[in-house]
Amino acid sequence: MNLIELDRALRKLRLSGMADVLETRLRQAQTEHLAPLDLVSTLVND
């Protein structure tokens, strides 16, 4: 699944807030070397 498909899936699930910050949080995760669980936790808490 690519970023566009993931964005669509999140919006379909009515998680537009998560979709709005997804790209930013992915960049943050790469920069800060976040573990996958930390990335998901950050997305959920946004």
Jot down its keywords:
single chain; 46 residues; mainly alpha; 80% helix
Q: Can you give a write-up of this model?
A:
The protein is mostly helical and 46 residues long. It has one domain (3-45). The chain has helices spanning 3-12, 16-32, 36-45. Helix 1 packs antiparallel against helix 2 (16-32) and helix 2 (16-32) packs antiparallel against helix 3. The radius of gyration is 10 Å and the shape is globular.
Q: Would you count the extended β strands for me? A: 0
Number of discrete domains: 1
Structural class: mainly alpha
* Helix-residue proportion: over 70%
Shape: globular
Brief rundown of the structure:
The chain is mostly helical and 46 residues long. The protein contains 3 helices and no strands.
